[in-house]
Amino acid sequence: MSSYDAFADSFAAHAEDSAYNAHYDRPAVLGLLGDVSGRRVLDVGCGSGLYAEELTRRGAKVVAFDSSSKLVSLARRRVSSQADVRVHDLEDPIDWLADGSIDQAIMALVLHHLADPVSALREIHRTLKPGGRLVVSTAHPTADWQQLGGSYFTDEMLDDTWNSGWEVRFRRAPLTVWCAEFREAGFVIERLVEPLPAESMRERFPETFDKLSNEPFFIVFVLQKSPVAGQ
């Protein structure tokens, strides 16, 4: 069972209009994905379907999955029959998707929960068409360092409690490690973006808007599929 099953409803409600999800990560990730009309887009770790819903609204043919059956149920309710949403653990091969069957993919705030990101990234690489792109967002390494202290170069899995009692496991790692793992999985970094908050945050969450206008909390990568993993 996914750890997110334990707080799926509260997580989904929070993500709907929270400062960091609705007015920071989603605008950045979806903006970097660009025009998706008529394209087959994979939503990796889709949660309650907020990204998938917007992608279908923009004309994409969405395939989505999450390890939490409760979040998948919420996502299916949100997108109805407009997207193919499945329960799947990213630690397992995505064997129900053929090689080169996906035009673009997103992995929003999922990477830092993976104990073996290279294997997962290789599977996504396999499903992408030649030249396909994956947009990945995760916690900014400097934000983790400022919050947790110690050496910036620490690479470890940690257990923590987020928001109102969400028990989660996540990884802190330096930028050097993330970039090396992208390359090992077969990706080239096309863009690295430290997003600024959307203007919609200014009125809703003014203090957070000011903070994120001066220091990063998330980081977003646009990764392009290279022909051979590790090249």
Automatic annotation (TrEMBL):
CDD domains, alphabetized: AdoMet_MTases
Domain of life: Bacteria
Residue intervals of the Methyltransferase type domain: 42-136
Stored Gene3D superfamilies: Vaccinia Virus protein VP39 (3.40.50.150)
UniProt key word GTP-binding: no
Gene Ontology BP, a term: methylation
Keywords per UniProt: Methyltransferase, Transferase
GO MF, one annotated term: S-adenosylmethionine-dependent methyltransferase activity
UniProt-listed InterPro entries: Methyltransf_11 (IPR013216), SAM-dependent_MTases_sf (IPR029063)
Protein name: Class I SAM-dependent methyltransferase
Upper taxonomic lineage: Bacteria, Bacillati, Actinomycetota, Actinomycetes, Propionibacteriales
